[in-house]
Amino acid sequence: MALYQPTPSFDLLRVPGLGRLLRWRWGRLVFQLPLLALAALVVYDGLTGPPLASQNIATVSVWVHYRGLVMLALLLAGNLFCMSCPFTLPRTLAQRLAGRGRRWPKALRNKWLAIGAFVAYLWLYEALDLWASPALTAWLVIGYFVAAFVLEALFAESPFCKYICPLGTFNFAASTISPLQITARSADVCRSCVGKECVNGSTQTLGCGAELFVPQIKSNLDCTFCLDCARACPHDNVALASRKPVIELATAAWPRRWDLAFLALVFAFAGLTNAFGMTPPVYALAATLSRWLGVANEALILALIFGLFMVALPAALGLGAAWLSRRMGAGQGRRWNRNSLRDLFTRYAPTVLPLAFAIWFAHYWFHFASGALTIAPVVQSFLLDHGVTLLGSQPNWRLGPIMSDDALFMLVLAAVAIGYLASLHSLQRVAAAEQAPAARRRALLPWLALWTALAVAAVMVFSLPMEMRGMIG
Ligand code: SF4
Ligand code: SF4
User: Fold this and answer.
1) Which of 47, 185, 296, 362 has the most CB atoms in a 10 Å sphere around its CB?
2) How far apart are alpha carbons 101 and 386 in whole angstroms?
3) What local confidence, expressed as pLDDT, does residue 393 receive?
4) Ligand approaching nearest to the C-alpha of 27
5) Is 226 close to ligand 2, i.e. is its CB under 6 Å away?
6) Predicted pLDDT at 340
7) Is the entire prediction scored with pTM above 0.90?
8) pLDDT per residue as tens digits for the range 421-435
9) 189 in ligand 1 pocket by Cβ < 6 Å?
10) From the CA atom positions of the chain, what is the Rg in Å?
11) Tens digits of per-residue pLDDT, 223-261?
12) Which pLDDT does position 334 carry in this prediction?
């Protein structure tokens, strides 16, 4: 079995104090408990607190802060949210109560369900105006706990995280640009390892719930950063190591699977559509469609727009780019001609992920930077309502932005520009691996055109006035 030979220059698990804490048996719990407390507060205030979104901890913390901070964590480190995810606490309980459940059905061991759940979640967010409803936000959190518990009690292999959870799907796709990755410190040690406890577990420790085998990991896809593998490895051979930026996309490290490549495209187009959904033209588009189709139901019209822009368009444009790529490289040698549509689609489509990440980052940071300080009067007001005057007696509801509009617009533009350049770099590296030199140049052209169009569309969307959410308007 070929083992991945890493060259980690920095290993977070070797940082004095922090590394030990992370590898400690209860280390994950230390990070999960604060988020569990926050989730409890979100549910409590969401169900009993002020109904106004901009004055409730549930809506402000989830739709303004969580999303901004999770992007920062993904950019600077990796999938820290899944590492600290409170929804996996009942999951662990379910695992202990039910033991190893049934295998997740073979037909569902892919990302198709996750893609569907991700698009459905984004649709529900808009159709139910989740951002404006503290109570629905609280029910969303409760629903998450129940779903994670039930699925984990019934099945082995962490199916909720790996095959369904929309937040996990978002984090998995986004963490492919993150600078840290689980890897083995020494391939030789893994080769001679008998128990493979990192994946199999032992009598004292759980192995990887996602069934990832450390010495073969080349990607952050599916890795929750739970560090069970590091705790289970009897040879202290697991590193949470630094890696070159966008290396897994530039080296086409993913398995050649339709669902994974399609996930990358949906993630990119959903980022753009989600931002577009907060601008005035989307209302004009919805009104036009409603008139044409004679359908008054807003949720149905939104489903149509989301299905078109998040699913049909990326599928058609991605397949079109792969087909053109194949046609343009035709005649450049037998090796090139053996490339199937799937080969090209699955190798080139994931190179969109840096640009996709940048679009999500720009969008979520627009909301975060516009309303980050709102949390101060919200918490103050919550405390006052419960008889605590810790932060003073008058909430300052004018608090909100942490940067000027101009600085924020520059940040958004810079994010899209950097993401675009990183996607082009990945694209160029993937094309450079083609055997025929002429095919190298031609193969990337359709993808270059598509990523450029996506970046231009993103700049146009971010130049439009965007609806403020979860804050005083
Ligand atoms: S348990 Fe440790 S040494 Fe053994 S295969 Fe896994 S990472 Fe390598
Ligand atoms: S490889 Fe598996 S056990 Fe290790 S951090 Fe990732 S998900 Fe957790």
Assistant:
1) 362
2) 44
3) 72
4) 2
5) yes
6) 85
7) yes
8) 999 999 999 988 876
9) yes
10) 23
11) 999 999 999 999 999 999 999 889 999 888 899 999 999
12) 65
Q: Is 212 in the pocket of ligand 2 (CB under 6 A)?
A: yes
- Let me know: does 424 contact 448? Beta carbons within 8 Å: yes
> Considering every ligand atom, which ligand is closest to the CA of 188?
1
pLDDT at 472 over 50: no
104 and 156 Cβ atoms separated by less than 8 Å: yes
Cα of 238 from ligand 1 centre, angstroms: 7
Q: Which atom of ligand 1 is nearest to the CA of 213?
A: 6
Please report the pLDDT score of residue 399 as a whole number: 86
Ligand 2 binding pocket includes 171 (Cβ within 6 Å): no
Backbone angles phi, psi at 219, to 5 degrees: -150, 155
Q: Is 430 in the pocket of ligand 2 (CB under 6 A)?
A: no
How many Cα atoms occupy the beta-carbon half-sphere of 401 within 13 Å? 11
CA 28 to ligand 1 centroid distance, Å: 20
Question: If you measure from the C-alpha of residue 209 to the centroid of ligand 1, how many angstroms do you get, rounded to a whole number?
Answer: 15
Q: What tokens appear for 146 in the block?
A: 């129940």
Predicted confidence (pLDDT) per residue in 94-148, tens digit: 666 666 668 889 999 999 999 999 999 999 999 999 989 999 999 999 999 998 8
Q: Is 349 in the pocket of ligand 1 (CB under 6 A)?
A: no
Residue 202, pLDDT > 50, answer yes
- Pair of tokens at residue 347: 């190798």
- State which ligand 2 atom lies nearest to the alpha carbon of 240: 5
Which of 4, 175, 229, 236 maximizes ligand 2 atoms within 8 Å of its Cβ, making it the mutation to test the pocket?
Answer: 229
Kindly state if the Cβ of 157 falls inside 6 Å of ligand 2: no
Q: 94 CA distance to ligand 2 centroid (A)?
A: 19
